[in-house]
Write a structure and sequence with these properties.
It is a single chain. The chain has 354 residues and is of the alpha/beta class. It has one domain: Ribokinase (UDP-N-acetylmuramoyl-L-alanine:D-glutamate ligase), CATH 3.40.1190. The chain has 13 helices and 14 strands. The strands form two sheets. It has a nine-stranded mixed beta sheet, sandwiched between helices. The termini are close together.
């Protein structure tokens, strides 16, 4: 069984990951389309329905009603870290989860992860649809995160300990963390000269949030980092399409051609591993294995979409730590995100069957 194989692989090793450096509370909403009674209403289930409503309003005002769906933790560190921890990975998280004490929403994470908080979390308003989501973040708490603030809170001894002990170090999200480049450079400078080949994991979140100069500057930093540690970059379909264009590739056409295209992009970036996850398939290219694509069933009525990509990433990191091959890594990541979409919860090992 797949679950037993993962458990055996992880329990026979001493793998650890550390995730830097954000923290969000997600306020998740649905948008009402029509209401006919106190409890009788319909929601905008498709993003295009909602955008059409905005477009059709012309230059006038738009009045909308919101229905609260849930309050949840969010962000790179919490979502990916918790997803991996639920699958058995020893996980540490550095970010903003509460000042004097943790926000109660992070307590489930605190029970199974080592949590180091530097202040109160940022807030994201999430508008969820069956086919996607809109995220609007008030980022003041995250924008204040810098290398100096991390050092001030944790101290260099603890930072060095976390880096030395970690097999995978994650930093994100690029688009929402102004000090992204600085934090990576500082961590890179602290990597110990030992025989461990550490990996770095990145999810940029939104290429359009910053200009192209900033994007390619950061990608160049990752290329240099890849000389000291394996760099894994994970993209959604929109990010991948934008990056493919830079190297004269497209994501259109036959699925069979996408792995070779991804491999070409990976080589141009100078990174060890490049992963793309979409609602219909996932594909990965690696310097030591042949690129592969794995199709996955599309979930038409997801219970929860915010955090889906992070759950995929947590599953992928877990499978990589457990030394699965590239196809198995994608299968495990797809199984993790599939469970999340259908059930609205982060899976544990027993939830991954097959």
């Amino acid at each position: 069984m797949l679950a037993k194989k993962i458990t055996d692989a992880l329990t026979s090793s001493d793998n650890k990951i550390t995730m830097f450096a954000d923290g969000y509370v997600d306020e998740v909403w649905e948008i009402v389309d029509k209401r006919t009674g106190l409890k009788d209403y319909t929601i905008y289930s498709q993003m295009k329905q909602f955008t059409n409503r905005i477009n059709n309003s012309g230059t006038g005002g738009v009045g909308l009603e919101l229905v609260k769906k849930r309050r949840a933790f969010g962000g790179f560190t919490a979502n990916i870290g918790f997803a991996a921890a639920r699958l058995g990975v020893n996980t540490a998280m550095v970010g903003v989860y509460g000042d004097k004490k943790l926000d109660p929403i992070f307590e489930p994470i605190n029970e199974i992860c080592a949590v180091y908080s530097m202040g109160d979390p940022a807030i994201t308003h999430v508008f969820e649809f069956d086919d996607g989501k809109i995220l609007m973040s008030y980022m003041e708490a995250v924008q204040d995160i810098s290398w100096d603030s991390i050092v001030s809170k944790l101290g260099m001894e603890k930072i060095n300990q976390l880096i030395t002990e970690s097999d995978v170090i994650g930093v994100g999200y690029w688009s929402l963390l102004p000090a992204f480049d600085e934090i990576i450079s500082q961590i890179s400078a602290l990597l110990p000269q030992d025989n461990k080949r550490r990996s770095f994991f990145f999810d940029f979140a939104d290429f359009l949030k910053k200009d192209s100069v900033s994007l390619y500057k950061s990608l160049d930093i990752l290329k240099v980092l890849n000389e000291k540690a394996s760099v894994i970059l994970s993209l959604n379909e929109h990010e991948a399409a934008a990056l493919f264009t830079k190297y004269n590739e497209t994501m259109d056409g036959e699925l069979d051609l996408i792995p070779s295209k991804l491999e070409n992009v990976r080589k141009n970036l100078g990174l060890d591993e490049l992963v793309v996850h979409t609602p219909h398939y996932a594909v990965a290219a690696c310097s030591t294995e042949e690129a592969v694509l794995v199709e996955c069933p599309f979930c038409e009525k997801p219970v929860r979409t915010a955090g889906a990509g992070d759950t995929f990433n947590g599953g992928y990191i877990t499978a990589r730590l457990a030394k699965f091959d590239i196809k198995e890594r994608l299968l495990i990541a797809n199984a993790a995100v599939g469970f999340f979409l259908r059930n609205g919860e982060f899976p544990n090992i027993e939830n991954l069957k097959g």
